Amino acid sequence: MKARGVMAACVTVVLLGMGVSGLARLYGTQEQPAPKDTEADAVKLISGYRQWTKANDEPKYVVPRVAPGSSGPLPVPQKTADPHEGKFLTVYVNETGREQFMAKKIPRFTEGTVIVGEKLPSRETNAAPELLTVMVKRAAGFDPQNKDWEYLVFDGPGKKVAARGKQNESCAECHEVQQPLDNVFRRCLNLEVLNQMR
Questions:
Q1: How far is CA 163 from its chain centroid?
Q2: For residue 21, what are the domain limits?
Q3: Residues 15 and 96 in one domain
Q4: Residues 6+ apart with CB under 8 A from 82
Q5: pLDDT, tens digit, for every residue of 73-95?
Q6: Number of C-beta neighbours around residue 175 at 10 A
Q7: Rounded to 5 degrees, what angle do the CA atoms 68, 78, 116 make?
Q8: Structural domain tally of the chain?
Q9: Prediction pTM value
Q10: Do residues 21 and 58 share a domain?
Q11: pLDDT tens digits, residue range 2-28?
């Protein structure tokens, strides 16, 4: 009799666990799955990125947001701070994502797209990056709420991962506003490129 009671309790716990898991999946509260690659794999993924398509010829200054109607640099209330504001940015995109990034008005990036942003202290084209911000389009189902992008932060030389996954929730929150454009900002592109998009 005791064995039957223990068995019933175990079945109840398993069923409850499945229910909680299903609710988490339904409401998008499950934790983002960890990618299977190691830090060395992540570093390899961006090695040689300066040979990829360079989205902007010159580093682009990221203007701090201002409150509507103000003439001064008053901060706009937002969930998270933009780590690029007040810095210069040069963006590179790999061959997988090049056409979507450079030519499509409404891009739909495929798995394997990698976008690297160099955060620079000045407009100098040979300035050493302070850090690299990276977006990697993962397989469908990786993180549907964030269009299956993984956000990573590397040190300036691109040799060490400083943050990834849940450590980068602020990246996902900021990029959320770009949902119609597959969560990708393209503020680095010049007007000529933007006007030729189809």
A1: 11
A2: 1-30
A3: no
A4: 62, 65, 174
A5: 444 444 556 667 888 999 999 99
A6: 19
A7: 105
A8: 2
A9: 0.75
A10: no
A11: 545 444 434 333 333 333 333 333 333
